[in-house]
Amino acid sequence: MTWDLIIVGAGAAGLMAAARAAELGCRTLLLEKSTKVGVKILMSGGTRCNITHATNQQGIADAFAAFDKKQAGFLRSALAALPPEKVIELIENEGVATKVEDTGKIFPVSNRAIDVRDALLQRSEKSGAMLAIGAAVTEIEKVATGFVVKTSLQDYASSKLLITSGGQSYPGCGTTGDGYAWARQFGHKVVNPVPALTPITTDEQWVKELTGITLPDATLSIVHDDPQAEANGYSPKQFLASRRSSVLFTHFGFSGPAALDISRTVTLSTDRKTLKLVCDFLPASGFEDFLSQLTDDCRGAGRSNVAAIVQDLLPNRLASAIMDRVGVPAAKRAAELSRKEIRGLARMIKAAIVPISGTLGFQKAEVTAGGVSLKEIDSRTMQSRIIDGLYFAGEVLDIDGPIGGYNFQAAFSTGWLAGQSVADNA
């Protein structure tokens, strides 16, 4: 039997593509090398699965804004074909209610990623697509009639082929970069894959001792080491990347959305030893306004000690670490602090400098930056510009967005468009 379409990889993009192609009449076979479908979906969002991101009146324009200019332009057709609200509609039609959290992230009401995975699998099955699990692809051959895909189970033939095998993030899920080798085999350029949305590490012991503390609102910025700027304060113009969101202190450094979103800058750097983090633990006000307020609080503190002032602003352990770093005794009366000591506290709270040692890499990365070059893919169809009948979708492409469901949205949309395009050209 020759299939109209074979899809390699049953993740977010593959499941969506299979359902779309099959419901439009294509004989579709979905291959998955693992014995479990959608493993990365099951792990995502702390096993809750951040499906996509809420939009306002501007709709899909918000989704464009989450990606860089090149990627946003490439995604225009895919997001138009399957915008965020359509993704939610499709999942809810399979019986999975969703909710929008304060951050704009959309999750299943159940907080169970398996419900999202099962909804996608159910829709794919209802469409008539066939699924073969434990079918590890060993070789792909281009023939006159299309493609021959050799697997650990058997060989399959199809007129069209869609690769949705993912990137290299969370390799334990089976996303070990297989698609890159196939892309290169067919003459495609692969932009060097690097980890993105991965925790940032430091050798600073005081940071590691704060393990478990979460700041719901903080700003992390990456800068190059500059002693003069460090002494006088870095300018935003010197920030290589900056993100305001929640931050989690860990035994290796920093995690949470703010750290994850800027980690790509670290992994792309050729000299990480020159990189440092500027940490603003209270970003709601500017430095001078905060310094003025802190000065007033200290001068009007009466017999209260410094600890009472700083611990009123930050978690106790972080407050203690800041006082230690500045060299201000916690028991000292706040009203007795010198202007230099107050400025030192303000600087440590608003612009603590932390050397960066690296990241946790692909093992903990939520997405891969880099992949099949977008220049060689027709964004209107997801078809290769080099090999007729060959398509790519999802994380295997050179697409990576910030945390918040944007990467799943890109996978869903590109998969949907690829499946639709195959059916249109069948």
Helix content: 25-40%
**Strand-residue proportion:** 15-25%
Total tally of structural domains? 2
Shape: elongated
Low-confidence stretches: none
The profile of the biggest β sheet is: 7 strands, mixed
Kindly report how far apart the N and C termini lie.
Answer: 16 Å
Supply the CATH class of the largest domain: Alpha Beta
- The CATH architecture assignment of the largest domain turns out to be 3-Layer(bba) Sandwich
Name of the CATH homologous superfamily of the largest domain: FAD/NAD(P)-binding domain
Brief sketch in words of this structure:
The chain is an alpha+beta fold. 37% of the residues lie in helices and 24% in strands.
Description:
The chain folds into two domains: 2-194 and 366-424, 3-Layer(bba) Sandwich (FAD/NAD(P)-binding domain), CATH 3.50.50; 200-359, Helicase, Ruva Protein, domain 3 (Orthogonal Bundle). It has helices at residues 12-23, 39-47, 60-65, 69-81, 84-92, 113-127, 178-185, 205-208, 227-232, 257-268, 287-299, 306-311, 316-326, 339-351, 406-424, and strands spanning 2-8, 28-32, 52-53, 98-100, 105-108, 130-133, 137-143, 146-151, 155-163, 190-196, 200-201, 214-224, 241-249, 253-255, 275-280, 352-355, 358-359, 367-372, 377-378, 383-384, 390-392. The strands form five sheets. Strands 1, 2, 6, 7, 8, 9 and 21 form a seven-stranded mixed β-sheet that branches. It is α+β, with helices and mostly antiparallel strands.
